[in-house]
Design goal:
2 copies of one chain form a homodimer. Chain A is α+β, with helices and mostly antiparallel strands and 686 residues long. Chain A has 25 helices and 11 strands. In chain A, strand 2 and strand 3 form a beta hairpin. The first copy, chain A, starts with a helix and ends with a helix. At the A-B interface, helix 5, strand 7, helix 12, helix 13 and helix 14 of A face helix 5, strand 7, helix 12, helix 13 and helix 14 of B. Chains A, B: Its cofactor is FAD. Chains A, B: It comes from Blepharisma stoltei. Chains A, B: One of its GO terms (cellular component) is peroxisome.
Chain lengths: 686, 686
């Protein structure tokens, strides 16, 4: 198919309706503007820690460039996109040497491969992640030595696995899943059932078409007693025939907002009998005499451990949503440097206009901030990954969950807003699929709600912070290095002149104060609501809006600012000029956060201070805008990975775009429904 | 095709994997909650002025329900969607008796038909609008008596027309389009040319497949002099063969973010000769001796008149984006009443949670506000429509442009935010195409940038306001009834207690003050920037962010609040109970606007006042949330028009949703690329 298209492309290039007789130099002209930076230095630091992993994956993509070029596949059917994705996976994954042993040594490498794939296409990234993380890590985290063979088969792609947690009727509230696994002592088997239609496992990646194995979460019932949710590893399709196994009904969840190439499916079980060893029995076992036992007596704690398999999925979102945001910004900024409109006889690039800079640059700043928190999560990942196995109840694991949760939510939100703004900034041409935003937006949209709905998941962060604070009331010291600011910056730093908004230390203390402000406000409101509603869950729920959500966000933004500052300091040591340019991006991030604040914290500033903030945002947007094409050159993914007709680094926007249009199927064809036009003409008498 | 699908549907209903043995009563239970309202009264008032037009169109849709049911068409190809749309148009339009005469009598009827169609599917709505408004009204506004035959043919659908304004290289800056129409006196013909590739007319609806006629905008060149942009009506396809006419190259613009069923296309001209009468010659003519003449000497003014054809398109956006927002809210609110998650042993509907109410209810309030401004625009429409013809330079026309511009932008933005939030509020299931959000979001997304890019178009409103203000400096009285507040509420009304946020008159004076605040701030900033930059265009551009954009928005919100208040007063007279419930929605609109304010105006409140606002938002979200299912019942479009599997008024969310999934093509099929799975297994040695 690709071959045919190529030929068409070559043919119509010769016959093309659009005759571009000279190269467009607008992007190169913009490249000359702004301050000089060390592009290689910024690039290398920005790509940490995945430079090598990405290079490997992206080089493989380059080998089959067409297979990874979205422009050529805009019209592909749902089934066609699934096939294409399988081809992509087959081309890349086996060459990446991701084995059980290599990943035990360096777990982060797996995330490197997966997000490298996902940076081009979230479909193939997610399909790989479902297998390599959700499936394998569930078996690994919750299983025991006897399951090692299953894990190794999976790493070698002999099996393709899925992870059946979510059900039609239960997403966030996993504790309430309806699927049951009832122990039958007579045969020492487990009998799996979906007692109602809403018990259907739903949205399960790889179930629709690919998987032959599944890790599934069911209520474990032994001798009539429900011991809560446990995980089981079971075949769902016959290995040879690929047909559903007796007792398993499965199908594809159909058309979606995006990601059509992922075969999300549903699973229903009817008296499906599996041997005892299907139980992933690290934390719970059934003794040979048929008794349930677990060294973790607390059912809720046991449940918490069941969910540890989600963490890598969330980490992948922290990483990949930043990559997609960056892709959108790359396209929009390059396009804005080329696109000219208004400005007198000689029209000016739209990137020159203050409004356009205001629309794009804060998102660039947020993308930098997200890159910083991504690095933090990656730095912690290997240690925490091992701890989840050896000491899952360690406070370091809880802290990691809290950090990942807030960045999972923040990065997804950053992405959705940025991609939408980038699309709008390219005006009409941003609406073309060949621009790339439609796919980026639809793909990133999934992050809002999968692997933990954002508004639910971010509550883990505020809960953790407040628990630590409440611990201090009982005299417990604050262990987490990320919470040392509590009580330290409890009074607002003096804000006496506009220039302070360009001092990192002052900004950090302001952000620390801001987070402390939300802690105090939240605690007060919680107390007030506790008095009004008695039930602490109700009081907690009533303290989300304007309090706990803002607390979690302000914490995430504080951590980002601190990490950003370390990044800038390090950069400055190596190249002061580059450090200065990127420091501006950091100041923009901070002042934009303050400017866009809608909570009562904003009213701790007086009108003059608020204006300083607004003016600083405007000025920095302008300055960063002038430097932005160079900054993008440093951080952009390679052209063949972004695969946008209007965002290419050579700046040939119109030529690539019209070529994409001319080569799309049916561009010059008459309507196949011409008869309907004739029919229309006859409908009314003149 | 539809028939085959129906059969499949019936078959698998019998064989279905999901066995729903009892009806879900959750939605009906929520209906019992909240305060009683007069649903019919609210419905009738909300549907003004289009109740009859919509009834006619929606009844026609009911006749062929499947043809308008998006759930059945999620997998349709681009070409298939175009065909489907033509079938929809053929089914509805000829029965609506939209003729030249009937529309001259009541121009608004046309908007009723078009937005009625668009409420179900923006594809068919837009395709009809392109012909009935963009094409016909361009010919009518800019042509003369001799063009009447063309208009009448178009009304009778003998011709299908398009409107070629935008070019590949020029969207917003229409004055700079490159296409030329050069007058050749020897034959009294016009010779049309696209001198460069970027001169291609681009995105032109109906060019891709349907149109045989075009109104096109070209630089008129007479005797070597460019007289600026003028419009011409020309054939582009042979009436009989439907092939492009010699000298015309045309094609389809390809795959888009959405709206695949619209055949947006491109047009290139090469020495295309058309007779003199192709010139729409109301404002400019070429005399028989070959001299250009126009009674409007000012080239810029003449150019302004050329754009009057855009106004109806913008009005349609004002209307249809509110309808789509309402559809999204209908789906999300009903789903939230049915979906249960957390809350203890017996789970609670997610609509019960304060966070969920905070996420949805402000959008419901904004949708009401948009419905109010929609009604205002419709009330003015007929008068202004005629004025555009008879007295296009009247200040009433300018005022109308300014009003339409701000609401075109605001409603589009409201819609994009609301639809995205609704989608996220339905979590995973919101990502399914059968929910309906994917289409709503992609369709509404087009409004951001077509018919005037929002950030550009909204400047017309601030420009108009400041011109009127500057007029007062010269002693001109303020004529517009919408600007009478200027100078009247120049000081901030006292804000001494929280209860004031539920007093409409006080809120209106606050919103008037707010708009006056932005006028003053903008004028000061303009002056300051004028001193810094000399060039007034630069100064103007540098005053957009934090000033002029906020001014325009605050004006739009003020008008919405006033209209909303009139609506509530009228409702209260007829039914005080209903009036009270909807007054809450209005207070929520107002307090949410104030709460989410990010500009320095927010800092005119002290911390206590800011908290009053936030608390009022929280309380009103809660109250409106409790009433929301009933409110939605009153304002929702019929089920067959919304066509969502999870938003149906009968509340059978899971049953309809699983049915949609089971009946989608290939649900139970094995992958057609099974060979690739086998290939994967062989890639690595175990």
């Amino acid at each position: 198919m690709v071959k045919g298209r190529r030929l068409h492309l070559i043919n119509s290039h010769i016959l093309g309706a659009f005759n571009f007789d000279k190269k467009c130099t607008a992007l190169d002209e913009y490249r000359e503007r702004g301050r000089q930076i060390n592009i290689k230095l910024l690039h290398d630091k920005f790509y940490e820690p995945f430079a090598e992993d990405y290079k490997q994956v992206w080089d493989l993509m380059k080998e089959k460039e067409d297979l990874f070029n979205h422009v050529l596949y805009a019209d592909l059917s749902r089934e066609g996109l699934k096939e294409r994705s399988q081809r992509q996976i087959n081309h890349i994954v086996p060459k990446c040497n991701v084995t059980y042993e290599s990943i035990q040594e360096n777990p982060l490498r797996k995330l490197g491969m997966l997000t490298g794939i996902g940076s081009n296409d979230l479909i193939s990234g997610t399909r790989s992640l479902v297998h390599f993380c959700l499936y394998i890590e569930t078996v690994q985290n919750l299983g025991t030595a006897k399951h090692l063979g299953i894990i190794k088969r999976a790493y070698a792609l002999k099996d393709y696995g899925c992870c059946g947690m979510t059900e039609l009727g239960h997403g966030s509230n996993v504790a309430k899943v309806e699927t049951t696994a009832t122990y039958d002592h007579s045969s020492r088997e487990l009998v799996i059932n979906s007692p109602t239609p809403t018990a259907a496992k739903w949205w399960i990646g790889a179930v629709g078409k690919t998987a032959n194995m599944a890790a599934i979460f069911c209520q474990l019932i032994v001798d009539g007693t429900n011991h809560g949710v446990h995980a089981f590893v079971v075949p769902i399709r016959d290995y040879e025939t690929h047909k559903p196994i007796n007792g398993v009904t499965l199908g594809d969840c159909g058309h979606k907002s995006g990601l059509q190439g992922i075969d999300n499916g549903f699973l229903l079980f009817k008296n499906y009998r599996v041997p005892y060893d299907a139980l992933l029995d690290k934390y719970s076992q059934i003794s040979p005499d048929g008794k349930f036992k677990s060294h973790i007596k607390n059912k809720e704690k046991r449940f918490g451990l069941m969910l540890t398999g989600l963490i890598t999925g969330r980490c992948s979102i922290v990483i990949v949503s930043e990559l997609h945001t960056r892709n959108a910004l790359t396209i929009a900024i390059r396009y804005a440097a080329v696109r000219k409109q208004f400005g007198g006889e000689i029209e000016r690039p739209i990137l020159d206009y203050p409004v356009h800079r205001f629309r794009l640059m804060p998102h660039l700043a947020k993308d930098f901030a997200a890159n910083m928190s991504m690095k933090l999560i990656c730095r912690l990942y290997n240690g925490r990954f091992r701890l989840i196995d050896s000491e899952p109840e360690s406070p370091d694991v809880t802290e990691f969950h809290a950090l990942v949760s807030v960045f999972k939510a923040l990065h997804g939100w950053y992405g959705q807003k940025a991609i939408q703004e980038c699309r709008e900034c390219c005006a009409g041409h941003g609406f073309s699929s060949y621009a790339g935003f439609a796919k980026l937006r639809a793909d990133n949209d999934a992050h809002m709600t999968w692997e933990g709905e954002n508004w639910v998941v971010i509550q883990q962060t505020s809960r953790w912070i407040l628990k630590v604070v409440q611990g201090t009331f009982k005299g417990h010291p604050i262990r987490s290095p990320y919470l040392q600011f509590i009580y330290l910056n409890a009074t607002k730093p003096r804000f006496s002149n506009k220039e302070q908004l360009k001092h990192a230390e002052w900004l950090i203390s302001l952000f620390e104060y801001r987070c402390n402000y939300y802690i105090t406000e939240s605690l007060n409101k919680l107390q007030e609501n506790g008095r009004s509603y008695q039930d602490m869950t109700v009081a907690w729920n009533r303290t989300q809006v304007h309090y706990l959500i803002d607390l979690a966000k302000s914490f995430g933004e504080l951590i980002q600012l601190k990490e950003f500052n370390n990044f800038v300091n390090d950069l400055t040591k190596k190249c002061p000029a580059t450090g200065q340019v990127i420091a501006n991006v950091m100041y923009l991030f901070a002042s934009h956060v303050l400017d866009q604040e809608t909570s009562s914290f904003k009213n701790t500033f007086d009108a003059e201070q608020a204006k300083w903030i607004a003016e600083t945002v405007d000025e920095l947007c302008d300055e960063v805008g002038e430097d932005s094409v160079k900054i993008i050159d440093a951080i952009a993914l390679p052209d063949h990975v972004i695969a946008s007709a209007i965002g290419h680094s050579d700046g040939q926007v119109y030529q690539r775009y019209t070529q994409a249009v001319e080569n799309a199927p049916g561009c010059f064809d008459p309507p196949s429904w011409l008869n309907l036009i004739h029919e229309t003409r006859k409908a009314i008498n003149l």
